[in-house]
């Protein structure tokens, strides 16, 4: 059960005074609150510290109760939750995997009635308490299996939202939706019968082709990055949709959204391969995840250095979704050129379609990191290994 003694004024004051401090050092102190489990107090400090940047609304609100820090690490950020909310509208939405409720908080700004399902009773009570603190009154919380909630409530939902969790955490391994909880492919027909639209969130590790093979009626896939780090994939399913799936890439930056959209299997205008010209472009991480390498080149009318390099070039500067550079020099990757231009100097190094790693290049040529010079080690249209020495725009 939820222990509300954690909301005692003195306890909350202690938590706020120790935000950001070393938990291992605090753990050595004597518990100043004998009526509370000391580990629970420490968890509140650690989890709230994690929330400062990721969940500023929660952090700034009094008397929020936090789950284990891993739940804060795994929950959506406010930035990605806000983007998800831009995709939905209507009267009703049910979240089958409610968790800490960050997505539902933002959904509640767009949808009149939200249902939050969370099988963990304590977490469900915590979220309900927090919604009260956040002055949200259009979300109902149910502490039960979401399948049972769907069966029990006689509703045709405008949206079903699902964030399946992986049953194991084998890093580096491709995973399938059928290996997650809930098993979306197994229950998809049931979900479609209960809703007008479905939105599924998955980790960026999920392969897009694998996801498409397990699902149907996928209207769009949103690849969402924050500050050039892909955070999640969003699968928009409509039971009436048939045709080619749209791929929507978005990179959420401090001052703007960087977007690029295309359709799977669309015909691509001829994309020429050329030697480096005046400017160099590196696609953002959302585009890299999408695989739309020819699509982005054709849309922005830039040339590609090599089929497998995924670097682009042009003589005129274009507003490309990613990083742009002015090429100051182009050198062959050989001992003479490296000794003259880069050995023992300072530069930021990126490799694309190149046999050597960044670390091995730095070690071999004694190149220090940082500075205003950006070097791309890559392969050109003639399959020659080259280095592009650039200045960031």
TrEMBL record:
> What are the THUMP-like domain coordinates in residue numbering?
322-392
Domain PG-1098 ferredoxin-like residue range list: 279-321
The record's annotation in InterPro entries points to: PG_1098_Fer, SAM-dependent_MTases_sf, Thump-like
Coiled coil regions in record:
none
Highest taxon of the source?
Bacteria
Pfam families associated with the record: PG_1098_Fer, Thump_like
Query: Under which name does UniProt file this protein?
Result: Uncharacterized protein
């Amino acid at each position: 059960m939820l222990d509300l003694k954690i909301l005692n004024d003195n306890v909350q004051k202690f938590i706020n005074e120790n935000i950001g401090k070393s938990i291992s050092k605090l753990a050595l102190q004597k518990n100043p609150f004998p009526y509370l489990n000391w580990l629970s107090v420490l968890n509140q400090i650690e989890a709230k510290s994690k929330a400062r940047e990721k969940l500023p609304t929660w952090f700034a609100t009094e008397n929020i109760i936090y789950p284990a820090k891993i739940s804060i690490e795994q929950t959506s950020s406010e930035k990605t939750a806000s983007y998800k909310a831009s995709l939905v509208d209507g009267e009703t939405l049910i979240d089958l995997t409610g968790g800490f409720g960050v997505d539902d908080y933002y959904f509640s700004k767009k949808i009149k009635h939200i249902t939050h399902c969370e099988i963990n009773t304590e977490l469900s009570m915590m979220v309900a308490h927090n919604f009260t603190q956040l002055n949200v009154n259009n979300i109902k919380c149910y502490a039960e299996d979401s399948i049972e909630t769907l069966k029990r409530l006689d509703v045709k939902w405008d949206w079903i939202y699902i964030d399946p969790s992986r049953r194991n955490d084998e890093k580096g391994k491709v995973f399938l939706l059928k290996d997650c909880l809930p098993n979306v492919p197994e229950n998809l027909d049931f979900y479609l019968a209960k809703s007008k639209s479905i939105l599924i969130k998955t980790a960026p590790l999920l392969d897009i082709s694998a996801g498409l093979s397990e699902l149907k009626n996928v209207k769009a896939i949103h690849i969402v990055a924050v500050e050039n780090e892909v955070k999640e994939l969003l699968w928009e399913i409509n039971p009436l949709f048939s045709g080619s799936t749209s791929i929507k890439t978005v990179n959420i930056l401090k001052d703007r959204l960087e977007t690029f959209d295309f359709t799977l299997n669309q015909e691509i205008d001829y994309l020429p391969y050329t030697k480096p010209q005046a400017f160099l472009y590196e696609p953002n991480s959302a585009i890299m995840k999408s695989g739309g390498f020819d699509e982005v080149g054709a849309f922005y009318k830039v040339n590609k250095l090599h089929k497998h390099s995924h670097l682009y070039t042009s003589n005129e500067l274009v507003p490309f979704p990613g990083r742009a550079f002015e090429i100051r020099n182009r050198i062959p990757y050989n001992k003479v050129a490296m000794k003259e231009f880069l050995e023992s100097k300072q530069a930021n190094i990126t490799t694309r379609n190149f046999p050597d790693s960044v670390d091995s290049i730095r070690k071999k040529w004694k190149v220090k990191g940082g500075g205003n010079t950006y070097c791309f080690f890559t392969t050109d249209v003639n399959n020659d290994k080259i280095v592009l020495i650039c200045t960031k725009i």
